[in-house]
Amino acid sequence: MEEYVPSRRRVNCYDTIEMYNGLTTDDALFDSCDPFFPQITGVSEGRNLRIRYKTGSFIQYRGFLMRYLQQDVDECAMTPGPCHNNAFCVNSEGSFQCICKPEFTGNGFECQEIPVQPLGKYLLPVLASSVGTGLSGAMLLALLFAANSSRPPTIWTP
Question: Which of 24, 71, 92, 155 fits a 20 to 30 Å CA distance from 35?
Fold first, then answer.
């Protein structure tokens, strides 16, 4: 036996408003003729909200399409700002981005100073003196490795 389900629409319902999510009428947000529909929410997923007005016994299918923009909130102007002290805050419509300053690294919300590696104290003198002395390539590589390693240099003798 089939269960009887009453129609959700009243037959004689005029001067009503229907609201739909987006450009089409596929996703209803509100129908003032539908007694089962909750209160108006009017929140669409994008920036388009289709509104139809029904008067008399027919629907004005054209209705109108409302495109709206939410007023942008400048998160960068907030105190305290959302970004790390060593980051730039870039505001955009509906969002913002934090970018670490050039001397720092991180995601913009946390920025750490990039450690500077000092040159080995023997690197520059070795390179300068090797130009005119004709050191062999193997000897030059051994000296560069020794100068930049954390242990004291060892000299190999045959």
Answer: 24
